[in-house]
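Need residues for this backbone.
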């Protein structure tokens, strides 16, 4: 249901837009938001899941949110489409973001010494061919790529790694063990930009 006080969408370039995404800092949704809004001043907020992200838009806490709906390798992201169908929001724009998966860890160890890898299920699916070469390495689904990086940091296990962006690794001080590990080198995710009301979503509006 809508709030009694509709959000006032701010288009003054001097006032930051509130933009939400699913995951932690450095997640692909976060990077896609930065790419989409370009030089426009934005404050980004991470949410645990798509439903909470949509709620943030519905309740006027967010001006916009980035919702990933399709990937060239893994196909449609059904959970995102389900939320989009149920939520009282409008798709007002889109962003095509090139996803560059990396294997990251605490220390620059050989890939053969990695014993556990965590990442979002979509990222794991997009890197399935690489993962199939790792033998008995344990693969774990996790909430988000950037949050998987945080798990590596918290656990402190040098033989544990995550699949995530280079930016997420940089933010957490991790090493990139191997880059370009996706099944397809041209790996893109399509994001819908959602808001509470139908409207233009160009950064310079």
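Answer:
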């Amino acid at each position: 249901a809508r709030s009694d006080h509709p959000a006032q969408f701010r288009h003054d370039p001097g006032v930051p837009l509130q933009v939400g995404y699913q995951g932690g800092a450095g997640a692909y949704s976060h990077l896609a938001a930065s790419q989409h809004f370009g030089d426009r001043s934005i404050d980004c907020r991470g949410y645990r899941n798509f439903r909470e992200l949509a709620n943030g838009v519905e309740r006027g806490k967010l001006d916009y949110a980035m919702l990933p709906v399709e990937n060239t390798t893994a196909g449609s992201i059904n959970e995102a489409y389900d939320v989009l169908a149920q939520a009282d929001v409008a798709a007002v724009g889109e962003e095509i973001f090139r996803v560059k998966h990396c294997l990251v860890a605490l220390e620059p160890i050989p890939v053969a010494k990695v014993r556990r890898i965590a990442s979002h299920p979509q990222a794991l699916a997009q890197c399935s061919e690489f993962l199939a070469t790792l033998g008995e390495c344990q693969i774990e689904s996790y909430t988000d790529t950037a949050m998987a990086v945080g798990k590596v940091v918290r656990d402190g296990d040098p033989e544990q790694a995550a699949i995530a962006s280079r930016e997420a690794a940089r933010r957490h001080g991790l090493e990139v063990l191997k880059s370009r590990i996706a099944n397809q080198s041209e790996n893109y995710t399509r994001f819908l930009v959602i808001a509470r009301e139908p409207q233009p979503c160009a950064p310079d509006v």
